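Why predict the complex rather than its parts? Because the way molecules touch one another can change local conformation, and only a joint prediction can capture that. The input here totals 488 residues.
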Amino acid sequence: MNTFTLKSYLTSNLGINEVDLNELTKNFKSKLVKKDEFLLRANEYCKQSFFVESGLLRQFSVDSKGKEHIISFAPENWFVTDRESSYFNQPSVYYIQALEASRVVLLDENQLQTIGGSIPSFAEFNNKLLHNHIRVLQSRINSLLGDTAEERYLKFIKTYPDVTLRVPLTMIASYLGITPESLSRLRRDLALRKTR
Amino acid sequence: MKTKTVELVAQPKAPHFVGDGFRVHNFIPSTFRMDMQRMDPFIMLDYNSTYRFEPSAKPKGVGVHPHRGFETVTIAYKGKVQHHDSSGGGCVIGEGDVQWMTAARGVLHKEFHEEEWSKTGGDFQMVQLWVNLPKKDKMSDPKYQAIKKDDIGHYQLPNNGGTVEVIAGHYQGVNGAANTFTPIHMFNVRLNPSATAKFSFPANYNTVLLVLEGEITVNNLEKVPTDHLALMANDGEEFSVTATENALVLVLSGKPIGEPIAAHGPFVMNTKAELMEAFNDFNEGKFGFLED
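Output of the joint prediction:
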């Protein structure tokens, strides 16, 4: 299993010196999460952002019929949280669950605000992360409304190159908003075209 | 000639399931000092020690998955496995058989307990090994060598000592049944109590002994019990294996390829860029299609 650290992620994204970096990360807490363990459940208040150092998480909701809808996957080097709940202090409608044994850094919302106040480059970085998050969500809504299933699948594999090998097809189908049978058909058609 | 000594004896780690049909102890690369670079060209060794599977109408196993950049070698000791791949091939690997699959630029395959065997269940014991390919062969055409038990040449040890079955490489003039890309010796050694077999491989060849049955002593010094693996040091050429009781030992020795290794999941390449390309090609369907 590949492992990344939040520290090296910040070094490559922040252009920060060692002293500031140590100061920034000294209160970060990491947690080993077992496969299937939940970091957040619906109706709880999300107080943290999660950075995945190793392993894989998913964020999903459950509709009134009990069907799961996967909003996002978070493999190594990804952040996942429910900003709606953590920033606006509302009960969450999402679950965040480990799909593999994972090592996750827990970033407290207040802690992030405090760090942003004292290290300007971090505030700027956090702002960029937020805008990137909005970009990803917008593009996903646009894709769900206007793209064909195949276009959505091709975008999925660009975003998550190795997730196809780490989760069951049913979860990818859930992320794409199609049935597992349609996904299987789609992949077969794609393979037939590529190998013909 | 110097003696090749035992570097360490590894005990089997807690088993885990691959799919629902293989209950394996991983030795390579997860054992301390047995990472891919150290064990080159043997980059993965999963050992399904004897385990009883109950009868199952639905065969247990591992569903469709890809490989690129290396070879998978399945050695069946007990039980039967049915194999299918994306090029339309398929075969049953039964007791004593070896399947040598060169994934090279990419195949999809699935492996399940053979249907009839699954219905009765029984003892299951297998080794699955990944053998790395040199850079020049990583993107060559996939191929299979379905090696039946009877195709494997034997050397009879003197004084009714037992036999050395030569899967690959050569032993005392007997040539191996498998073709390999780089020099590899792979033997099943069956020894009667207190019999000894002697081996000689170049010092730099990475060498392991996996004890499948019984107990052995290496160089009359180091005991290796059932289901344990001895890693040989790169300090000499010759060593001896003596059985303290009826023993079956898998002997592996290979010349290191000595190229950079970039590995992630089922792909083993030389660079990170080649790994990304492997994921991309797999996701886009370039490995073909195989029904689940």
